[in-house]
Amino acid sequence: MKSSIRVAVAGVGNTASAFVQGLKYCEMEQNPIGLAFQRIGPYEAKDIKVVAAFDVDSRKVGKDLGEAIFTPPNNAPRVVDVGKLGVVVKAGPLLDGVAEQLRNSFILIVEGSIEDVVRELESTNAHVLVNYLPTGAQRASEAYAEAALRSRVAFVNAMPSVIATSKVWQLRFEEARLPLAGDDVQNQLGATVLHKTLVRLLALRGVRIEGTYQLNVGGTPDFLNLMYRKGQKERTKTEAVKRMAEGEDFDAYISPVAYIGFLGSRKIAHMLIEARGFANVPIRIRVDLEVYDPFNNAGIMIDIVRTVKLAMDREIGGPLISLSAWAFKNPPVHAPPEVAYQWLIEFIEGRRDR
Ligand SMILES: NC(=O)c1ccc[n+]([C@@H]2O[C@H](COP(=O)([O-])OP(=O)(O)OC[C@H]3O[C@@H](n4cnc5c(N)ncnc54)[C@H](O)[C@@H]3O)[C@@H](O)[C@H]2O)c1
């Protein structure tokens, strides 16, 4: 049964800004550019409404969401005017949400509780909670996952905390018959999906990979946070690339290496692959990719929440295997992009359970 899709966001940073602006853009455009799916089941992008938002930054809490998304330190560009949205940003539980080094210098904190989050999710009748917290916020992510379960809301883990890949959380969402998707969104055309595709191509063509690196720089608050806490991000990115050449043993170094303020919300990835072709002859691939990071994430999120709502309509609980393999860097089950795409189509058409 078609209804609107009521979404709550935890973390009103750059990716939440691009998501909220992206929804407005889709409302204004007949044929929005850059969406992989105009329709998922009965749902179009314009069926999605953001109904609740949580943060701990005193500059954002208490503001209308339409204003909070343009409040520093956010620096995602303004591509549309969203006006006031009638959604006031509420304080959520802090826990390990903000890196120690950034507390009370870069970010002045206001805190809420899990109960505040549950109350807000229930009173706004949210269907899906999207977790956009900074990398390294494992305990805070778990607090929002707990709030989602208590308020009977599906959970999307857009960042690298271990939730959709945790057996414990998988089971809890399955028992509650609520969908769970994650971990860590794979951007529309980000360094991860491009690097994976190249490694997969080489593996299929019999080229032996000797070593590869991917060095990322950017000027978003996300990059600043990563300078203090990049462990989980390095792990999800490296694992995603290495899984594309299963059985091969090669060195992979993949890391966010520097916060460079003047880049603003641009991210630049430098990639190198050294390999050996037929008769042990060397092959070297060098790629430079430059993207506006938050918008690279937002279109995919519009596909994710529509697919999650479709799963809810079908009363499917637990990890969504096909969606997560397509749209996340560290899914419960890894698959090459073209295989994951096929799984997703089959799921949307009702020919695959998850
Ligand atoms: N393209 C991308 O930018 C991209 C792609 C994949 C994954 N991600 C991941 O998505 C996450 C969000 O990215 P971003 O660029 O929006 O980051 P950001 O730093 O701009 O935003 C994070 C927001 O979370 C808030 N926050 C911190 N602790 C909180 C808590 N306990 N409760 C509620 N709010 C809290 C911060 O104040 C901030 O507003 C990051 O973990 C990032 O790695 C981003």
What can you see in these coordinates?
The strands form three sheets. The protein has a seven-stranded parallel sheet with strand order 5-4-1-6-7-8-13, with helices on both faces. 50% of the residues are buried. The protein is α/β, with parallel strands linked by helices. Helices cover 35% and strands 22% of the residues. The chain folds into two domains: 5-186 and 295-348, Rossmann fold (3-Layer(aba) Sandwich), CATH 3.40.50.720; 191-292, Dihydrodipicolinate Reductase, domain 2. The longest helix has 21 residues, at 293-313. Helix 10 (321-327) crosses helix 11 (337-348).
Main attributes of the structure:
354 residues; alpha/beta; Rossmann fold; Dihydrodipicolinate Reductase, domain 2; 2 domains; 4-stranded mixed sheet; globular; binds nicotinamide-adenine-dinucleotide
Beta-strand proportion: 15-25%
- Report the principal-axis shape: globular
Distinct ligand kinds: nicotinamide-adenine-dinucleotide
Q: Examine the coordinates and then state which fold CATH places here, giving the name of the CATH topology of the largest domain.
A: Rossmann fold
User: What is the percent of helical residues?
Assistant: 25-40%
Task: Describe the SSE topology.
Elements lengths: L4 E6 L3 H15 L10 E2 L2 E2 L3 E8 L9 H4 L21 E2 L22 H10 L4 E4 L6 H13 L3 E4 L9 H9 L3 E3 L9 H14 L3 E11 L2 H6 L4 H12 L8 E9 L6 E12 L3 E12 H21 L4 E2 L1 H7 L9 H12 L6
Parallel strand pairs: 1-4, 1-6, 4-5, 6-7, 7-8, 8-13, 9-10
Antiparallel strand pairs: 2-3, 9-11, 11-12
The site of nicotinamide-adenine-dinucleotide (NAD) has 39 residues, from helix 1, strand 4, helix 7 and helix 9.
